[in-house]
Description:
The chain is of the alpha/beta class. It contains twelve helices and twelve strands. The protein has two domains: 115 residues, NAD(P)-binding Rossmann-like Domain (Rossmann fold); 176 residues, NAD(P)-binding Rossmann-like Domain (Rossmann fold, 3-Layer(aba) Sandwich). The model has no long low-confidence stretch (mean pLDDT 96).
Amino acid sequence: MSMPEILVTDPFIALVHDGLRRAFTTHDIWNADDVETVLASVAGNIRGIACGHTIPFNPDFIDRFPKLEIIANFGVGYDNIDADYAATRNIVVTNTPDVLTEEVADTAIGLMIMTARELSASERWLRAGNWDDNYPLTRGTLRGKKLGIFGLGRIGKAIAQRAEAINMEVSYHNRDPMSDVSYCYFATLADLASHCDVLLCAAPGGPATRHIINADILSALGPDGIFINIGRGSTVDESALIEALRDGTIMSAGLDVFEFEPQVPQALIDMDHVVLLPHVASASQHTRDAMGQLQVDNLVQWFERGKPVTPVAETPWPRR
């Protein structure tokens, strides 16, 4: 009996490639000299796709695969996949939630502390041999400050728990209030920004949130405000953010994600009061192994039992 044929779009960790090759006939396009030639030769037989975020899965791309049954995404965010359209074709879409929640929440708190206390800048100061001159006292602190979380999902809740442990007051904005938390809910993002000292974005990407962090939101955050983003770069109008940082509309920012990765605006790189990370919130070996195994498990369980482990909400299969 032949193994199902799947397409592999990205250079994943070895655990993923090894697991896929044991269970499937794989066709890699991430290392192909001519991607279109490979796609033309195999598209008619592809039943599953293991993907990252390098290719937009719009209807035209999805329709190239008439036998496609499942798109297994590496990562919790899947705004590169038109999951609503996939559902109309009875294609299941899966992601890798839960296994990265704690790592990302740890990174968010670390990024928040680094930004407020200027830890990156003070390290550069030391490395430049400036210890004999006292590093200036920082304006920023988390003592007695209010954290506003935009996107109180799994990761947002884990961040909130950690913030409470360092005595921050937590509030949030989602599309709707949540019944399982006692944090103060704000019906608009502008109201949340006006209330808090630190605005943290843990929201997903996609058309509904594109550039939702704009000049008005940053103005509401104010000149003593700190903006942190570990969600999606597309949620932020980067030009507005750069201007807000330049003119003192907000005090500082800590960013793990950017609008056009891997390109980071030179204007941000040149700012000493901004902390920049290269999208590493989940990037430990432990967590990436867990994410990779879940991606493989989703594909294996689908073809062995017809039951994906972690389907996304838009596609009509219950989570196990």
